[in-house]
Design brief:
Mean pLDDT: 81
CATH architecture of the largest domain: 2-Layer Sandwich
CATH class of the largest domain: Alpha Beta
Number of strands: 45
Strand content: 15-25%
Low-confidence stretches: 1-51, 61-100
Oligomer: single chain
Helix content: 40-55%
């Protein structure tokens, strides 16, 4: 983890337990020796005549007592030497046998400095410096010089010795540079809030220089930590550098004491056999096997323990892999379904893998080698109790094999044999796969059962034959004029919407354009003739006409392209092929590309105009420059190179693979920009260059933001298993770091993403602070299941509705064992939400206490009428009895086929009594009811049903009758069932109000301008309130409502303002009308006056006449119609603070009404709940839009 520019010297220290040495030994000047070692005093002596050079024997001892030479041991494990006195007499000591020896307050420390690391100074400068150190720190210093090093011996108090040594090392040694590598996630802790920690380390180390790299090196990556390594350079003297390094590494050790490591299981077949119970893993390590469906084992805990657990898990997987093997056995397809794979796996821990390729009969048994033979023997033995009978359905309908194959595809897609399977669960019907069907000369269904249920097998066989006989070839219509590759999604959407059963053969067989439409068989009605069935299918196929129109508008182009180059560049999954497809998709269309068509050296392209043009341009570009040796260069900021390369070159490898280019990155660059060379196909190079430039731009914009988050909210902001943090990181491409200790959360990444992530995290923190209140209520033990609800529906509903957290503080089973009457329920949220949640829980408890059950005996023939079509009658009855607001209620009516007469009602007592009376009343009404048929034209029957059946439901509820209307497309009379007086009233209402086709005036409005003319419904309301004129649209009501309520398309990225802007106005010209000009919406005006004279007095009596009101209403509609073609401009007014939109609307909508009337524009002010709630939409002429936007801005600025 570290590299070092200088060799660090060993440092030795020893504490002497004897009294301090004499001052003379350190104060007196020291002479030079003949051996090259010299002793230097603190000051120079005067010049003297030459004399004998002193030897080692001339050195004075460090003590007044001569000791015998001892072998010195340095370091923490040093043993105290046993000294022997030269004199036989004992040395004086303190009296008393229990006294401890006196410890000296001074110490000596010896250390050496390598001559290569020392600065060059003169002897006089050296002596002067040593003397200053001695005086400033009150220590004695002795120094000896050898060929390789200089040794110092410092004597004094521990603190003074330490400080003196630091100063000596700092002044006498050359500066060294040490580089250490730390995980990137620890850098913020090393720097500290506002740089506090790094300043403390720098000051404590004597002001050394510490440089932290902004980006990681290309190959600097710690696989265990899953993190890049950042270089930290330390520059200064050896001692200070080592001090700073130790401090930094201690922070790193603390920050990385916990780790999460994933162990990938490369062999997927091992997964069913993995059991980590026998693997030695520390209790401090949390193990999650295959989380979220992954193929990894995740280990979390202390780093050292996790690394040890990783090794143990890997060894276990290697051992397990050696114990697992595979055996393959040939078993005919017919008998493969007899093998119960789950049973074999449960008994022998052996997986059974069946073949998928057509014609392959090889079955694989994969598991522990010792169990394979037993598992195979068991599979053989257990399959002998079954019998297999083949039913050849291709014999039906004149041995029509193709028809039989189509039927099996239909059976498989719609599970047509589901009822048979559910009725005869001991009999299994096995269909051939679509792949197998292609090669079959006859088509059979295998029926498998045990010998003791032979009767059921016969019944199943008969029922399948019955289904096959009903579905004749005339029940299938083949459509093959639509291209599957281009339009399979459109075909599927159109037919699914029309609720027509269909099978697309292209789903199973490549290049097959055939779509099979199937007619439904109604067993309760007479079978139609083959001609009628085919006519019905052809009508159903008409829904594909829109797709046919789209296909007829396709463009086709042919491009010359060398055949060999086609195979080289456009193989499936190749980089160039993928880039061409991406280019086509980005053009906003789709195209079909056929290589070597119509000849070997040509390519045929068919599709949308934009897509075809994009594809042709791409192919022509590649054909013009087919060489893979083209070169390009791209210039990127030097500080982003390491990120572009990625950990161990991962990012660079992805770029090479995606674009199939060679990338050369200079090893060093002294400029602010680095030139990266690209080699490959020129077409690919252009895309690779754009990609690298975009990535470099993204990484050059890296910034860091901090957010103070109290520790108790960390868990809520991180989310369960880090889900919320991970979502923010992925959404905004940032890294969010929560500290182990402390409150400062750092967000690092591109500036825009950092700002958005910071704002979102801040909003969540504010929410958590606001909603962090708690309250506890008591719930009776017997009512806890009601509070929770089935599968947690009730308690989860309260959570979702009120935004609170609910937690039971005790277990129900434990509470019962302890004979507790109540269990505590903790509610967390805002004060108001807690209050409402408490009320909701209390209401559930009260409802549970008031719960009762009642049974009614009603003849089974009335059950169907009580339930009503689709359960509508029963739902309406429950609603009238007050059941809509009651969660815990049931009304159990036996099935129509059942002979059971009992209807069970459960719920609150009031509800049960009301339901009982209502059901009895229904029976009485049925007994006294009559039926009357009404002649209503088929084209008016839809009005009687209404949107979603609303009109019919209203009539049935209002008059307590039942109305039967023929199905759409079928002729027949409308029948009313009910009491005679109710039937008569209902009939009168139908003919006088519902199907009345009278109106006073009709105006046809082009559909393209309907939304503008109606002012999204505002004008229609205005006509009703001002002129008593109601507007209806006849059979076009649904379409008119859809146009009026359609969501405006707002180009958010273009019109939304950037950070720092308060408002932004964008005005654009409308390119095209929203619907076909030939399509009209009828506006049918009816004058329906209301007498307001009692309210308005004389003013009400002087209201308009019918003709005046209709004329005024028509004039306003035509005025809007004349203005609509000119209203070809749209204004988008964005405001940073959407709360100001209240000023635009004004009290009761007065302001916005005034602006609309003054400018004749269509204005939509978004609601708070809208998806886009910060942009006002204005449509009209250019002048009117500008005027309206100005008035809106003025209102916002008030």
């Amino acid at each position: 983890m570290e590299s070092q520019a200088a060799v660090e010297e060993p440092q030795h220290s020893v504490v002497i337990e004897t009294p301090p040495t004499t001052a003379e030994s350190s104060e007196a000047p020291v002479a030079e020796t003949t051996t090259g070692a010299e002793t230097e005093g603190a000051s120079t002596a005067a010049a003297v005549a030459p004399k004998r050079m002193p030897t080692r024997a001339d050195f004075p001892p460090l003590s007044s007592v001569i000791f015998e030479t001892q072998k010195v041991q340095w370091g923490p494990n040093m043993k105290k030497p046993e000294s022997q006195s030269a004199s036989p007499s004992p040395s004086p000591g303190p009296s008393g046998s229990g006294a401890k020896p006196m410890r000296s307050k001074t110490m000596q420390e010896a250390f050496s400095l390598d001559l290569q690391t020392q600065v060059t100074i003169t002897k006089a400068e050296f002596s002067k410096f040593v003397m200053s150190v001695k005086q400033s720190h009150s220590v004695s210093i002795e120094s000896t010089l050898s060929k390789l090093s200089r040794t110092f011996l410092i004597t004094g108090s521990p603190t003074n010795v330490y400080n003196a040594k630091r100063e000596l090392v700092k002044k006498l040694t050359r500066p060294v540079t040490v580089v250490i590598q730390v995980p990137s996630k620890t850098v913020s802790s090393i720097i500290g809030p506002g740089g506090r920690m790094i300043r403390e380390i720098t000051n404590a180390a004597g002001g050394i220089k510490i440089d932290i790299a902004k980006t990681a090196e290309a190959d600097a990556y710690d696989a265990d930590l899953d993190d890049q390594l950042i270089n930290i350079s330390l520059h200064g003297d050896v001692a200070s550098v080592n001090f700073a390094k130790d401090k930094i590494l201690s922070i790193v050790k603390e920050e990385t004491k916990n780790a999460t490591i994933s162990v990938a299981v490369e062999n997927k077949q091992l997964i069913p056999f993995i059991s980590l119970a026998d693997v030695e893993i520390s209790e401090e390590v949390t193990v999650k096997a295959f989380p979220n469906g992954s193929e990894k084992i995740v280990l979390t805990g202390p780093r050292d323990e996790v690394k040890e657990a990783k090794v143990n898990v890997q060894n276990y997987l290697n051992t397990l892999s050696s114990r697992v093997s595979e055996k393959k056995i040939s078993i005919p397809r017919k008998f493969q379904p007899l093998i119960d794979a789950e049973d074999v796996r449960d008994k022998y821990k052996v997986s059974v893998l069946f073949p998928t390729a057509p014609g392959d009969d090889t079955v694989s048994f994969y598991g522990l080698s010792a169990n394979l033979d037993d598992a195979i023997a068991y599979a053989r033995q257990s399959s002998k109790q079954y019998i297999v009978e083949s039913l050849e359905i291709s014999k039906a309908h004149g041995k029509n094999v193709a028809h039989a194959k189509n039927l099996l595809l239909y059976f498989a897609k719609y599970d047509a044999l589901k009822e048979i399977k559910e009725s005869f669960k001991e009999v299994k019907s096995v269909l051939p796969t679509p792949e197998e069907l292609q090669a079959l000369d006859n088509v059979s269904i295998n029926i498998i059962s045990k010998a003791d249920v032979a009767d059921q097998t016969k019944t199943v066989r008969k029922q399948i034959i019955n289904i096959v006989n009903q579905l004749t070839p005339s029940h299938i219509l083949a459509v093959d004029d639509l291209d599957y590759e281009l339009f399979h999604k459109d075909i599927k959407q159109a037919l699914s919407k029309a609720e027509t059963p269909f099978v697309q053969l292209g789903d199973y067989y490549e290049g097959n354009n055939t779509v099979l439409l199937f007619a439904k068989v109604d067993e309760e009605d007479f079978q139609p003739s083959p001609e009628e069935v085919q006519e019905h299918l052809k009508k159903a196929a008409a829904v594909l006409d829109e797709v046919r129109t789209k296909q007829s508008k396709l463009f086709t182009k042919t491009v010359d392209f060398d055949a060999e180059h086609q195979d080289t560049y456009f193989s499936e999954g190749s980089a160039t092929w993928n880039l061409v497809l991406e280019n086509i998709t980005s053009a906003g269309g789709h195209a079909q590309i056929k290589l070597h068509t119509p000849s070997e050296d040509k390519i045929t392209i068919r599709g949308d105009e934009k897509a075809v043009k994009a594809a042709v341009k791409a192919f022509e570009s590649i054909a013009a420059n087919p060489s893979k040796k083209s070169k390009l260069t791209v210039s990127v900021p030097t500080n982003t190179v390491s990120r572009l390369i990625g950990p161990k070159g991962a990012n660079l490898a992805q770029v090479r693979q995606k674009f199939d280019v060679q990338i050369d990155v200079p090893s060093e660059s002294n400029d602010t920009n680095t030139e990266i060379s690209l080699t490959g196909l020129e077409y690919n190079l252009e895309y690779a260059k754009a990609h690298i430039a975009a990535e470099a731009k993204k990484w050059a914009d890296i910034t860091t933001k901090e957010l103070i988050v109290p520790t108790k909210y960390h868990g809520s902001l991180i989310g369960s298993q880090g889900t919320y943090r991970i979502r923010l990181e992925n959404k905004y491409s940032v890294r969010i770091q929560f500290p182990k200790e402390g409150e400062i959360v750092t967000i690092k990444g591109p500036s825009r993403g950092v700002n958005k992530a910071h704002a979102e995290l801040k909003a969540l923190l504010d929410f958590e602070i606001e909603n962090g209140h708690k309250s506890v209520i008591n719930v009776p033990v017997e009512h806890v299941p009601r509070v929770i609800g089935k599968n947690g529906d009730v308690i989860n509903g309260i959570r979702a509705e009120l935004g609170v957290e609910l937690k039971l503080l005790q277990n129900t089973k434990t509470a019962k064992e302890q004979n507790l009457d109540t269990i505590q329920l903790e509610i967390t949220g805002s004060r108001q939400a807690i209050k409402e949640a408490s009320k909701a829980v209390d209401a559930i408890i009260a409802e549970a206490s008031d719960f009762t059950t009642k049974q009614l005996e009603i003849d089974a023939k009335y059950h169907k009428l009580i339930v009503g079509p689709g359960g509508s009658t029963l739902k309406d009855t429950i609603s009238k009895a007050g059941g809509d607001d009651i969660r815990n209620k049931t009304v159990d009516v036996p099935n129509a086929e059942s002979t059971n007469k009992v209807i069970t009602i459960s719920g609150p007592k009031t509800f049960v009594e009301k339901m009982s009376k209502a059901l009895n009343q229904i029976v009485q009404d049925i007994k006294a009811s009559v039926a009357k048929e009404l002649n209503i034209p088929a084209d008016r029957q839809g009005a009687l049903i209404g949107p979603g059946g609303s009109v019919r439901r209203q009539l049935e509820s209002q008059f307590n009758v039942r109305i039967e209307v023929p199905d759409k497309g079928k002729e027949g009379k409308v029948t009313i069932h009910g009491r005679p007086e109710a039937v008569e009233k209902c009939e009168k209402e139908i003919f006088s109000t519902i199907i009345r086709d009278s109106y006073d005036m009709e105006i046809m409005v082009p559909a393209a301008y309907h939304a503008f003319v109606s002012e999204r419904g505002q004008l229609i309301n205005k006509l009703r309130m001002t002129y008593f004129v109601n507007v209806k649209h006849g059979n076009s009501s649904k379409k008119a409502n859809k146009l009026s309520r359609s969501e405006q398309s707002i180009p958010i990225e273009r019109v939304r303002g950037s950070e720092g802007e308060a408002t932004k106005l964008t005005i654009e010209e409308l390119s095209a009308p929203e619907a076909s000009a030939n399509d009209n919406i009828p506006w049918r005006l009816t004058y329906e006056p209301v007498d307001l004279s009692d309210i308005l007095g004389e003013e009400g009596k002087n209201a308009m006449t019918k003709e005046q009101a209709l004329e005024a209403a028509a004039a306003q509609i035509k005025e809007r119609m004349d203005l609509a073609p000119k209203a070809n401009h749209i204004g988008y007014l964005w405001c940073e603070n959407a709360k100001k939109f209240n000023k635009v609307v004004g009290p009761g909508g007065s302001n916005i009404k005034q602006i609309r009337e003054a400018t004749n524009t269509l204005i939509n002010v978004p609601k708070k709940s809208d998806k886009v709630n910060d942009i006002i939409y204005v449509r009209g002429t250019k002048e009117s839009v500008e005027k309206a936007c100005k008035m809106i801005c003025d209102a916002l600025n008030k």
